[in-house]
Amino acid sequence: MKPARNRPRLAAAITAGALVALAVPTAAVVPAFAVISDPGTHIITVFPERDMVSAEGYADSDRPTIQVLRGGAVIGTVSNLVPVGGIVEVNHPGGGCWEGTTPDIRSGDVIRVLTAPDVGDQTFVGNVTVTQPATKINAGTVVMKGTAVAPGGGQLPADQLEARIVAANQAFALNGRRTLRAGAPGSGEDGTVVYDGPGLTTWTATWTGLTGVGTDGVTDADRATAANTSESRGMWLGRNAAVGNEVTIFEYAAIGGPAAPCTAPLAKGPSTPDLTAASDTGRLNTDNITRSTTPSFTGAVALPDAASVNLYIDGVASGSASVAANGSYSITSNRPLANGRHTVTAGEVSPGGVETLSAGSLALTVDTAGPVVTAKAPAVNSLMASQTANVTATFNEAITGLGTASFTLKNSAGALIAAPVTWNATTRVATLNPNATLAADRKHTATLTAGITDIAGNPIAANSWAFTTGPRPVVTAKSPAANATAVSRTANVTATISENVTGVSSGSFALRNAATGALVSYAVSYNATSHVATLNPNVTLAANTKYTATISTSIKDAGGNPLSGLSWSFTTGR
């Protein structure tokens, strides 16, 4: 039967003071990371007896995820739902299906509808039941009985409680609709629902005057109590019944579990264990990565009388705990886990000692090793680094915490150089791009701080490396020219260098007989103003002889960048 889409009506006699929001039960606490409205601007309707949820008010582009939480643990999920007319549903024809197992939705469970990983609305399942379906007392009177309990105990406010009878095919003669409603006395509904006494949480709904006859010849009283064509409902209208953005509908005799075409089996054991907030050290609350070797897990049991829960990691018993009053469990592994992947399951134990294992398992990764830099550019202690090149660090794994405070560059005076920092998740390369050209021939220091962590939360070992910018010095002119002929036998050999250098000497600037390799006796001088190195032979060079001049890389500029080495030859004259 398709759930009714009309919203609950506010009773005319309800005063503003009666619209007091209920306190949210313990299970409805929102984690600190979440940005979740409770209740929200969307309408969430829960059908606990059919393990069904319907939510309204979503854009066509939304792809909501619906979760069921018990004791703070997620026990049911369906994701990437496609709105139809602004509505998303789960476990109902035309809607989505629960993933893995169908949760046995109960009062006090939290229903959360997310439009982003940590953004959405939530409500809790109201504790309203029908204990006696619509029953004909006399020709024109029908009663229904049930319970309604507030989250903290005691009665629900009268304006939050409603009883309904829904006919399958025909409208009631009384109101021309398919439903008969019962609200607080004076609400103007078709009938009234009142508690059975002061402080009691049992209630009775009564409809009178149901003697009208429909077009099929059936009286309203008979239509309301027909076992096969009517449905009895108890309803919680939400913390603010006038708004109607959260509703729980208890349907008498409805059957739970997967509804066609859904096939995920009804949960019969505890929920799949999940990392507790304290152990969830990963960047996301869904990545199941922890740096704790003895992590803690939480979840919820399926059986109301479950006494304890056992934890199994890789099939090995790893701890146990009693079940809390709200049906949740929390267990810390009693043995340290090695780095790597692990499979975590749980089993709930009944008072009679029968254990039922969870239908699903958690794939967990333990990671206690911090990220490692596998490559740096410019390289450690490198010279001749480009003044316009980026500084990069390649990591062995994904990281977080990267930014201008955790990846820095300073000049030789220790001043911070402004530079944006980016991260390529595919190549795992962090890039620092200086805003200005770096000073020439200067030492620079790049630093990675412990603010950078892997997705398990392990920090990098803080480290720094230095490099020196170029450009490297080069010979811009030489005399005699390369391959010159008829060169004077008494001429000096000179090399003009692009910048001031050190290390010009007889060991770094030499002249040899090209044929024999014999070193010519000479003296070397250097002019720091003109940057000219001069080689003055001590003897007259041989006539018609080829000589080779060599200037080596041992000559360096102020930053330590080596000269680009060079050799050239010339031939003397007569």
What does this structure look like?
The protein is mainly β. Among the domains are: 127-237, Immunoglobulin-like; 274-366, Immunoglobulins (Immunoglobulin-like, Sandwich), CATH 2.60.40; 373-469, Immunoglobulin-like; 475-572, Sandwich (Immunoglobulin-like), CATH 2.60.40. The chain is built from one helix and 45 strands.
Short account of what is shown:
With 574 residues, this protein is mainly beta.
Helix share, percent? under 10%
Output the structural class. mainly beta
Q: Rg, please?
A: 41 Å
- CATH topology name of the domain at 127-237: Immunoglobulin-like
Compute the number of helices. 1
SSE topology:
Blueprint lengths: L34 E3 L5 E5 L4 E5 L8 E6 L2 E6 L8 E4 L19 E7 L2 E6 L2 E12 L2 E9 L11 E7 L11 E5 L7 E5 L6 E6 L12 H6 L4 E7 L9 E6 L22 E2 L13 E2 L5 E5 L7 E6 L2 E7 L5 E5 L7 E10 L5 E3 L4 E5 L6 E5 L4 E4 L5 E5 L3 E2 L6 E4 L10 E4 L4 E4 L10 E6 L4 E2 L8 E7 L5 E5 L4 E4 L5 E5 L3 E2 L6 E5 L8 E6 L4 E6 L8 E6 L4 E2 L8 E7 L2
Parallel strand pairs: 1-8, 2-16, 12-13, 18-25, 27-35, 37-45
Antiparallel strand pairs: 2-3, 3-6, 4-5, 4-7, 7-8, 9-10, 10-14, 11-12, 11-15, 13-14, 15-16, 17-19, 19-22, 20-21, 20-23, 23-24, 23-25, 26-28, 28-32, 29-34, 30-33, 31-32, 33-35, 36-38, 38-42, 39-44, 40-43, 41-42, 43-45
